[in-house]
């Protein structure tokens, strides 16, 4: 039952991550644009028009990054939830199994049976 619940949680998380592919693409494009603008601004000559152009391109890239950050944070939260659900189910599965009293010490019971 726990495995089924874990599979359902993972399936829902995968669907949500798949729906957030668009914001992640925008985040990547904004990062590339900002990096490219920074590199060209650093090696730009002293022309005022070139500096203003690369500052505008960099500002556009940064605004794209800021707009896509909630999707990135949401994906990180989903990954954390699935991880903790998985580790919690694994620890419960290994340590939570009930042991019946009659099977606690099989060796001593076997000795009692064979000594009779």
Tags for this entry?
116 residues, mainly alpha, single chain
Describe this structure as you would to a colleague:
The chain has 116 residues and is an all-alpha fold. It has one domain (2-92). It is built from 4 helices and no strands. The longest helix is centred in the middle third of the chain and has 48 residues, at 48-95. The two termini are 43 Å apart.
What is the structure about, briefly put?
With 116 residues, the protein is an all-alpha fold. The protein is built from four helices and no strands. α1 runs antiparallel to α3.
Q: Structural class of the helix and strand makeup?
A: mainly alpha
Strand content: under 5%
Number of domains: 1
Order of helices and strands: HHHH
So what's the overall shape?
A: rod-shaped
Based on CA atoms alone, the radius of gyration comes out at 29 Å
Give the averaged pLDDT, no decimals: 80
Q: Strand count, sense and closure of the main sheet?
A: none
Q: How many DSSP-defined strands?
A: 0
- The parts where pLDDT drops under 50 for at least 5 residues are none
**Helical proportion?**
over 70%
User: Distance between the terminal alpha carbons, to the nearest Å?
Assistant: 43 Å
Number of helices: 4
């Amino acid at each position: 039952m726990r495995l089924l619940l874990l599979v359902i949680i993972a399936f829902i998380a995968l669907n949500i991550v798949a729906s957030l592919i668009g914001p992640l693409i925008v985040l990547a494009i904004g990062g590339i644009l900002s990096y490219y603008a920074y590199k060209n601004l650093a090696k730009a000559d002293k022309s005022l028009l070139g500096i203003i152009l690369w500052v505008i391109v960099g500002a556009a890239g940064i605004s794209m990054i800021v707009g896509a950050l909630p999707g990135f944070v949401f994906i990180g939260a989903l990954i954390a939830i699935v991880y903790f659900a998985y580790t919690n189910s694994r620890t419960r599965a290994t340590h939570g199994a009930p042991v019946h009293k009659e099977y606690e010490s099989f060796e001593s019971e076997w000795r009692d049976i064979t000594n009779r």
